[in-house]
């Protein structure tokens, strides 16, 4: 499956334990998102359009109002990367 570099970057962060926190409008639509790494840093590459693409492809999922996390499909779709620590 073709995944852009930005999608790869976000999925890699989520696969390592990060999460996408969101805020909803009163009508239920998501208006603001922030992608956090597991260390608590904010990933600047994640925007609403990228979020919608990942959600549409079922790479990320939220369970009962919790932050969005990577699904099994999302984790298996991301190319492995060497961890730079």
TrEMBL record:
<dbReference type="InterPro" id="IPR018654">
    <property type="entry name" value="YjhX_toxin"/>
</dbReference>
<comment type="similarity">
    <text>Belongs to the UPF0386 family.</text>
</comment>
<protein>
    <recommendedName>
        <fullName>UPF0386 protein KX928_07760</fullName>
    </recommendedName>
</protein>
<dbReference type="Pfam" id="PF09857">
    <property type="entry name" value="YjhX_toxin"/>
</dbReference>
């Amino acid at each position: 499956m073709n995944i852009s570099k930005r999608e790869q970057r976000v999925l890699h962060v989520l696969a390592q334990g990060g999460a996408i926190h969101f805020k909803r409008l009163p009508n239920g639509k998501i208006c603001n998102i922030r992608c956090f790494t597991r260390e608590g840093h904010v990933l600047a590459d994640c925007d609403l359009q990228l979020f919608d693409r990942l959600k549409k492809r079922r790479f990320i999922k939220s369970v009962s109002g919790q932050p969005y996390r990577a699904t099994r499909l999302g984790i298996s779709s991301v190319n492995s990367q060497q961890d730079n620590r």
